[in-house]
Amino acid sequence: MTIHGRVLTAAGAPTVETPLELVEPDGDLVRVRLTASGVCHSDLHVANGEWSAPLPMVLGHEGAGVVEAVGPQVRTLRPGDHVALSWYAQCGHCRRCRSGRAWLCTGTRATSHELPDGRTSLRDAHGAPVHAFLGLGTFAEAAVVPEAAAVAVPDDVPARIAALIGCAVTTGVGAVLNTAQVRAGDSAVVVGCGGVGQSILLGLALAGAHPIIAVDLSDDRLAHARALGATHVLRGDDPDLVAHVAAITDDGADHAFEAIGRPETIEQLPSLVGRGGNAVLVGMPAEGVRASFDPFDLADAGKRVLGCNYGSSVPAVDFPRIAGLYRSGRLPLDALVGAVRPLAELDAAFGDLRDAVGLRTVLDLTK
Ligand SMILES: NC(=O)c1ccc[n+]([C@@H]2O[C@H](COP(=O)([O-])OP(=O)(O)OC[C@H]3O[C@@H](n4cnc5c(N)ncnc54)[C@H](O)[C@@H]3O)[C@@H](O)[C@H]2O)c1
Ligand SMILES: [Zn+2]
Ligand SMILES: [Zn+2]
């Protein structure tokens, strides 16, 4: 089947609309007609060359769509089902999968940008392989993914919301509920208030955290953070940031989340939490970045540094849970959606991310 997608051929170069051959959905594969995709900074890390990846590649990993065809071994999905896509298709067999921790799967091929059997899902007009980012490649009209990467969501969840559940929301809300296990009345600080940080803010409001401090360099992002539940906002270049957080939280926050991936903000994170606090690393740095901490402070104050992959979530459990919270009005995910653009404007959507203003840009893939 021939589809159109936007292909990255070199880091830093514009993406190019390209006709692509999509593999048939045999075995446990599912073909999804894509309807919406968010544009996440993890796509930009690759487009900027900060993460190495096999090129050419169709980026995009925060997507939703409607199942169009299923392979004979598919058990949980049928044509017509609305799905949100998981960018970490678990193998189902490894030690972590068997213990219910799909976000730690060691058998996934998603991080090689391949199908479970090692093929790429896409080829160009000459038959040469084109990689689909994290095995999805949602900056295209359709995708073929393993059954484990497509999770049914109710039909009345709008496509743009289902798309954001595929990455930013599950990561941000999961960081709060699963990784940090925030309790009502805990204090929290969020450093970096883009799409992921905004989702952390909604998760904190849902959990009943108080106070909630948002930190960013963009005044526009801080204004959005207030609307999403932050009780206090501080600028990231405030030289007295640590003292201000300590004053607001009575000697340091119970939880601090870094949602940028910069060494300076990662290194500062433990100093924002008080004794016994959690410093949660959600932002993903460029390859090769190192950060250092004061180990005496960590040991003496009983602070914990927690890594957070995909909000410590199991998509088959957490996507429907989040969709249910959205439908009940408890999780106002509409508040996360910013500009809506057609696929042809992908490079402009990357520009929105680089500018660090507004809310998450979502591509409407039906246009
Ligand atoms: N852990 C995971 O599973 C996971 C999942 C998705 C995304 N991510 C990562 O999360 C990070 C954020 O993604 P996003 O899509 O929200 O990005 P984004 O670009 O939308 O947001 C980043 C925000 O950080 C702010 N910022 C930059 N430098 C700052 C500083 N020094 N101090 C304070 N604020 C600063 C920017 O103004 C912007 O608002 C990326 O590294 C991405 O790769 C991780
Ligand atoms: Zn993402
Ligand atoms: Zn596994």
UniProtKB/TrEMBL annotation:
Coiled coil: none annotated. Its cofactor is Zn(2+). Keywords: Metal-binding, Oxidoreductase, Zinc. Transmembrane segments: none annotated. It holds the Pfam family ADH_zinc_N. InterPro entries: ADH-like_C, ADH-like_N, ADH_Zn_CS, ER, GroES-like_sf, NAD(P)-bd_dom_sf. Residues 6-363 form the Enoyl reductase (ER) domain. It comes from the Bacteria. Belongs to the zinc-containing alcohol dehydrogenase family. This is Alcohol dehydrogenase catalytic domain-containing protein. It comes from Planosporangium thailandense.
